[in-house]
Amino acid sequence: DGMKRGGMERGGMERGGMGRRALDGSGNDNNDDRDSSGNDNNNEEDGNNNPISLQLVGGEEWLANPVLPEDVVNESVPGNMRRAEHFLSLLSRLVSFFRDKLADARVISTVAPPLFLAELQAKMLVDGKSLRFCYDRLSSLLKTLQVVNTDEFTPIQLLADFATLLGTYAKGFAVITEPYDERMVGVPDPVIQLSCLDASLAMRPVFGKFQSVVITSGTLSPLRLYPRILDFNPVAIQSFEMTLPRNCICPVVLTRGSDQMPLSTKFDERENPNVIHNYGMLLVELAAAIPDGIICFFVSYRYLDFIVTRWHASGILEKVLGHKLVFIETQDVVETTLALDSFRRACDSGRGAVFLSVARGKVAEGIDFDRHYGRAVVMFGIPYQYTLSRVLRARLEFLREKFQIKENDYLTFDAVRQAAQCVGRVIRSKSDYGMMIFADKRYQRHDKRDKLPGWITRHLQEAHMNLSTDMLMMVVQKFMRSMAQPYDAGQIGRSLLSAEAVAALEDV
Coil, strand, or helix at residue 498? Predict the structure, then answer.
């Protein structure tokens, strides 16, 4: 209860990117340290209190703990926490320490793990070596007690995750204490976050285990920045063109509304009534001209709520509903799932629908809008991260000091990559087609446009880089008419590599 009241469960672990989720590059939880047969990969004791190390074979010892160094995985549990009562005493001291830290939080602070550990050891007599085994020891204890429903132990499991990473990594992490949420200054809501600043920690075990590693993605752009962030020297870097049977994607940059007013979601412009009105009328005209599904991405949940409220008050939302149904993503998983199901049913029935979503949200990260579910995607603005975030500021400082990556370069790279991931939701196969609309004047600049993936920029025509809403609608109508024509999906040389193209690749 103390952990919940202090805000640890709400954001201290999850918002700070803690536990195994923080370092699992696939985005999946990694909270089950068992081999393929279901055996625990923990250090246990026999009847004489002697340590027993369970050995896994065939590479499973690495898969069981992909983010922990090998010496930690193979080391025996310290004697001061092998017995359950001793381990529970250690957890009790940890809970007391963090409760006091949360209660005394008055100012925002960022410290390195060694300094935080020194304070912990001085006050609670808990050393870093013991902390490294908290996760495994707690998992072993819960399994020994045959606990089936572990939901009620979530706070203490998060604390064990925190302690394990804190005791394992002296570099690449930062402990950030915030006494309140920056969106509600003055309201006490203390949070202690263990934030991973060094992405190379996740890849280091992979490079150490395998001789050859191939990293592929549709949004790795610019390619040269990734090796710097992940701290490795690539032996080959190659970008391949997308082979399509026809020009089935049409990216455009919308810079002006019908009244020739510039469009942008910059902080000092996003609440401009002209920008809000032009964005709304853009959606109205797209809903009238494009069949089936339209996906819209906004820069944040807050801006999505703000602009939908304004559209509703001005009657724009009602005009959109005259052409298609409208569904909105929320931060509630159940509500978003229901909205997605209803959106798909509306598209299947021929009614058509518009789905309003958020970049970096649940939908943008893994939902595909293939076929008629996504005939157009609109990216309203550039999805920069919240630049006042203490976690982001700490990471930017780390990247600047260790890898000499400039702050603006990283922020732009990350934002444009997110935008590319959003618009890529509509192209999931060679038979798909769709419009990609970048609705912000800043995409016209080279420092933004050049960071888009090559498969997008190759289809971005010079005439489509500075459009008004009226000009855009002409492009939309022409593209949709061309896509309605029959085509031969087996055109050799376009949908497949020709013999000459294969020979050219071999020569490289």
Answer: coil
The identity of residue 129, as a single letter, is: K
Q: What share of residues in the chain are helix, strand, coil (percent, to 5)?
A: 50, 15, 40
241-261, pLDDT tens digit by residue?
777 777 889 999 999 999 999
Say if strands 43-45 and 51-53 run parallel, antiparallel, or are unpaired. Answer: antiparallel
CA angle 455, 431, 298 (to 5 degrees): 55
Tokens 């690749």 found at:
505
Confidence (pTM): 0.77
Contact in structure between 43 and 139 (CB atoms under 8 Å): no
The CA distance from 392 to 401, in Å, is 14
* Cα angle 137, 141, 142; round to 5: 120
How far is residue 460 CA from its own chain's centroid?
26
d(CA 241, CA 427): 15
171-196 CB burial, b ≥16 within 10 A, e <16: ebbbbbbbbbbeeeeeeebbbbbbbb
Give dist(CA 193, CA 161) in Å, integer. Answer: 12
pLDDT in tens, 214-225: 988 887 778 888
**Which amino acid belongs to residue 301?**
Y
